[in-house]
Design goal:
Layout: H1 2-15, H2 19-22, E1 23-29, E2 32-37, H3 44-58, E3 66-71, H4 76-90, E4 94-101, H5 109-122, E5 127-131, H6 139-143, E6 160-162, E7 165-169, H7 184-196, E8 203-209, H8 216-224, E9 229-234, H9 238-253, E10 258-269, E11 276-277, H10 284-291, E12 296-302, H11 304-311, H12 316-319, H13 324-344
Parallel strand pairs: 2-3, 4-8, 4-9, 5-7, 5-8, 9-10, 10-12
Antiparallel strand pairs: 1-2, 6-7, 10-11
Helix pairs in contact: 4-7, 5-13, 7-8
Length: about 350
Amino acid sequence: MSDVKTLAIEKLKLLNPEYPELIEAIVVANKKIYLSLKTDKTKIDKFTRIKLQIEKELSAIDGIDSVSVSLTSHSESMQSKADTRAVTSGISEVRNIISVASGKGGVGKSTISINLAVAINQLGFSVGLLDADVYGPSIPKLVGDRQKPKKSKAGKILPIQKYNISLMSIGFLVPEDSPMIWRGPMVITAVSQMLNDVEWGQLDYLIVDMPPGTGDVQLTMAQRVPMSGAVIVSTPQDLALIDAIKGIEMFKKVNVPILGMIENMSTFICPNCKNESHIFGFEGAKVEAKNQNVDFLGDIPLEIDLRECSDNGKPIMLSKTDSTVSKKFLEIAKLVKSKIEDNSNSEKPNIIIN
């Protein structure tokens, strides 16, 4: 990997001795080069030409399948038109895109995402799941699979097929113990590629397991991807709810419909004495959903079976179909489906031009 980086920089020097000084970051992973350049926003046309020149030159390196160059110092508006076209083309056959988000990490968002995807599939729909958390991808572990994706005849990446779900995650592309030491623009580029360069095909629903927080990736995805709605995940704890509210406000500001809130780890029932304990508080997300004027989709208890199924790589929706947790996921899936259909069938303006 380091040899490829060195060779890439040497090639850039031959193109123009000043080009290496523009490099903000360069990463080589799975036969791909990701490179970000510091850009003067007043000379966007010039740097766009440089971008294309560099991508063409570095693509000629032996063993490299593709090169992605992002321009990191110019304004969002200069970048968004091209990026939006690219992202939209990659998901043109996807009917509905649902973001599963949280304001903070550690609330079980990925576990919710995979089980929600399986539940919607069990309702009779074709479903895909994109793990957009580049820094901490969890989906490969949750489905018990780390195989490398293959390429289609058209050169697109084929999603991993597991449990009748089409899956894509950076965790399928890099070693499990390899940290993603990337700056924001490179992460955005990687997520865009997992949308656009993947042959998703015809899907009724694509679930996007968003990274925690309300930073660059979340905002960029919300602005550039035509989302049908967002599901907010939180525990009942006040600390989690504070950040969940930020997530709700972010989606509202970019006009993404909030489908509702899910309260994860709502309660714990001891498997021995059967006593119920509200470890993280009582109905915090349910109350906050009412305060924020969004729907409450349901609660998922903290259960050993759910944790064990996740660790074993087989979602509880498939491992223990008759469990209370599985039934709750199925009810949540029905509510999400209903909300999407209601939004799609809502009255639209009828413009008549005489």
